[in-house]
Write a structure and sequence with these properties.
It holds the Pfam family Tetraspanin. This is Tetraspanin-7. Keywords: Glycoprotein, Membrane, Signal, Transmembrane, Transmembrane helix. The protein has 160 residues and is an all-alpha fold. The protein has one domain: Cd81 Antigen, Extracellular Domain, Chain: A (Orthogonal Bundle), CATH 1.10.1450. The protein has seven helices and no strands. The mean pLDDT is 85.
C-alpha cells in the first residue's frame, strides 16, 4: 500500500513539475489552437465553435488578441463577428457585426487569450494549495503504512 501511494505521489509530483516547466509551451499551444478554432469557426454546432462561443460569452471577450481577429476569418466575410461577442444580444444586428467600426461599439473589444491565461494564473494559487494539502495527506498515509508494515513484520500484532 505504501508503495502504491508513493507511486501515485511521484506521478503527481512529476506532472506538477512538467506543467510548471512547460507552462509557456502550454500558453503558446493554447493560443495557436484558439487561432485555429477561429479560422475554422462555423455556425454548425461543432465542439470547437461551441467552445469559442462559451469562452467569449463567459469571459466577455472577443477574438484571440482582440475583436479584429475575426476580420481575418472566412466566417467574418459571410456573417461578421459572432453574436457570442455581443455586449447585449438585443442590440446586436448582423449589419453592425459586418462593419468593424460599428462592431467596436457593440462587441467586447478585449481578446480572450489574455483573459483565459490571467484567469488560469489567478486560480493557480488555489490549485497549488489544494494540491499541497493532498500531497501532505499522501505523505502521512505513506508514513503510517510503513509504520504498520514495520509493526506487522516485528510480530507485534497477533495473527488471527
Amino acid at each position: 500500500y505504501a508503495m502504491l501511494l508513493s507511486l501515485i505521489f511521484l506521478i503527481v509530483l512529476v506532472a506538477a513539475v512538467v506543467g510548471f516547466v512547460f507552462r509557456h509551451e502550454i500558453k503558446t499551444n493554447f493560443e495557436s489552437n484558439l487561432n485555429l478554432a477561429l479560422r475554422h469557426y462555423n455556425v454548425t454546432a461543432d465542439r470547437h465553435s461551441e467552445a469559442v462561443d462559451t469562452i467569449q460569452r463567459t469571459l466577455h471577450c472577443c477574438g484571440v488578441q482582440n475583436y479584429s481577429d475575426w476580420e481575418k476569418t472566412e466566417y467574418f466575410t459571410q456573417s461578421g463577428i459572432p453574436r457570442s461577442c455581443c455586449k447585449s444580444q438585443d442590440d446586436c444586428l448582423e449589419e453592425d457585426l459586418k462593419d468593424p467600426s460599428k462592431a467596436k461599439l457593440k462587441v467586447f473589444v478585449d481578446g480572450c487569450f489574455f483573459l483565459v491565461t490571467s484567469t488560469m494564473e489567478s486560480k493557480m494559487s488555489v490549485v497549488a494549495g489544494i494540491s499541497f494539502g493532498i500531497a501532505c495527506f499522501q505523505l502521512i498515509g505513506i508514513i503510517l503504512a510503513c509504520c504498520l508494515s514495520q509493526y506487522i513484520t516485528n510480530n507485534q500484532y497477533e495473527m488471527v
